[in-house]
Amino acid sequence: MSTSVYAGSHGRSTTIHLAGEVDDEALPRLRDLLDELGGRQVRRLVIELREVTGLSPGAVRALVYAQQRLPAGAEVIVVGARPSVMAALALGGLGGTATLAS
């Protein structure tokens, strides 16, 4: 499966869709996409991971950093992460602060 990184927004809600092995090769695109969020007043960030087979440590750090840059009180929802991907997010610091959904 190839890596896919894209986002969509509706009002103050943004959904990031990731698929495949999100490794260091995909990291520049992920960082660019997350940097675009910085100029918006996102109140809800949904991270769609149903099709992700793995996340590099750099990708985990990028997602954690993006969460830290959101306005106070913004909600982060992680959707469909496999157990191994969820473990990587938890080790990186995102698991305890995000809502997990199947």
User: Which consecutive residue ranges, at least 5 long each, have pLDDT under 50?
Assistant: none
Please give the alpha-carbon distance between the first and last residues.
21 Å
**Which geometry do the CA atoms define?**
globular
E-strand count? 5
Helix proportion: 25-40%
Protein traits:
single chain; 102 residues; alpha/beta; 5 strands; 33% helix
Can you summarize this structure?
This protein is an alpha/beta fold and 102 residues long. 33% of the residues lie in helices and 36% in strands.
Structural write-up:
By secondary structure, the protein is of the alpha/beta class. It is 33% helix and 36% strand. The chain has three helices and five strands, in the order E-E-H-E-H-E-H-E. It has helices at residues 27-37, 57-69, 83-92, and strands spanning 4-10, 13-22, 44-55, 75-79, 99-101. The protein has a five-stranded mixed beta sheet. The longest helix has 13 residues, at 57-69. The protein starts with a strand and ends with a strand. 27% of the residues are buried. The mean pLDDT is 89.
